[in-house]
Amino acid sequence: MTCPVTAVRRIIPAVQPLDENRIRKSFVNCSKGEAQRLALPAGLAGLDWSEVDFLGWRDPRAAQNAYLVAPYGDEVVGVALRAAAKHRSSVKSSLCAFCGTIHAATDVSLFAARRVGAAGKQGNTVGTYVCADLACGLYLRGKRRPAVHNPVDRAPLAERVERMLANVARFLDEVTTDNAG
């Protein structure tokens, strides 16, 4: 299942309201049982979907577990993620691969997603550095501020969101490609 980057072009909001059942059924890189057991984000019922470009959250009971549910082509796709263990680094700041926000190095995490199909069963993963709190849309809208100064992006919000969703789609392209063999 591949999604050309141009297919993510859509009018904000990108994600229509999702219920628990639709979220759980969207996961492509874990078993149905794992999808049924994963912890959904707190406050899902009261979420303002008009400002949700993709749904990303970390499991409060197991912080290394995270989840991403995003528009992908004409559907919504969910992927289970695993955050790498934090290591002290000499790097002072890092860039989110999705939204482009510059953060203190501790506020960006390496997230790995198991690939779909035989590749995933063989242990193949895809990783990317993303806002540790998966709140990219809030940073784009100025509703959350990083600890590190960021240059002002004067592009219209719709263009910045489109750019972010294209980056998410590229990541999902990698996750949904079964390159075993």
From TrEMBL:
* Ranges of residues in domain Elongation factor G-binding protein C-terminal treble-clef zinc-finger: 23-175
Which superkingdom is the protein from? Bacteria
Organism field: Amycolatopsis thermoflava
An example of a Pfam family matching this protein is: FBP_C
Q: What UniProt keywords apply to this chain's record, in alphabetical order?
A: Metal-binding, Zinc, Zinc-finger
List the molecular function annotations (GO) for this entry. Answer: zinc ion binding
* InterPro entries per record: EF-G-binding_C
Protein name listed in UniProt: Treble-clef zinc-finger protein
